Amino acid sequence: MSNTQVLAASEPGGATSGVPCVPPVGERPFSAGEAEAAARMFKALGDPVRLRLFSLIASHEGGEACVCDISDVGVAQPTVSHHLKKLKEAGLLTSERRGTWVYYRVEGPVLASVARLLGHFG
Amino acid sequence: MSNTQVLAASEPGGATSGVPCVPPVGERPFSAGEAEAAARMFKALGDPVRLRLFSLIASHEGGEACVCDISDVGVAQPTVSHHLKKLKEAGLLTSERRGTWVYYRVEGPVLASVARLLGHFG
């Protein structure tokens, strides 16, 4: 099962929703599988350059940015591509080619499910 | 400035509050310093064993657990201690010795500020 599937259950139509299978962190101890899935997300966000790239895309109009918009974080293009790939693998971004450029979009429901993991504490 | 200070501004009394200095990820691109501070938190949560330990403490009564309660995640005690230290360094846990045992407590406001980073997207 992919990481996105564990963290965001599939809707009948096949699209991912924001419904998390992993409970909020204060509800009960995570199982090994839940911890694996959630840790993969946090690890993807746990690099400063990757997080800057992610915030750049997330704060761009419509939560989407062209690679041509995201080359000013002080690292070379291959490094940018590497980080974007990691964020895609974690399910936090999707990408789409339109003509010359690839556009990256934040997966809002997945991000929301990660936020819910940490919320409702106490 | 410590990580906790960047993510959770100090209250007049000196205790940390949940007010984040780092904005939600969809608000504007993070600065290098903001990304550093936030990535450190995510990195601390980005290990499956560490995350299981964290969820175990967070879901324990009062968001607090004795080390004697948290030895059943399938790793040796020195590994448990190593992970708890990393979570403390990130500002996500505090600890206190009471008699024989050390008690670990989740820093609720810091956790909430990390959740807010990911929330309010779109």
Could you describe the 3D structure shown?
The structure is a homodimer of 122-residue chains. By secondary structure, the first copy, chain A, is of the alpha+beta class. Helices cover 44% and strands 12% of the residues of chain A. Chain A contains 5 helices and 3 strands; from the N terminus they run H-H-H-E-H-E-E-H. Chain A has helices at 3-7, 32-45, 48-58, 77-89, 108-118, and strands spanning 64-66, 93-98, 101-106. In chain A, a hairpin with a 2-residue loop joins strand 2 and strand 3. In chain A, helix 3 packs across helix 4. Chain A is elongated and about 45 Å long. Mean pLDDT of chain A is 83; it is low at 8-19. Chain A binds chain B through residues 25-30, 32, 35-36, 38-52, 54-56, 58-59, 63, 74, 106, 108, 111-112, 114-116, 118-119, 121-122, and chain B through 25-30, 32, 35-36, 38-40, 42-52, 54-56, 58-59, 63, 74, 106, 108, 111-112, 114-116, 118-119, 121-122. Chains A, B: Keywords: DNA-binding, Transcription, Transcription regulation.
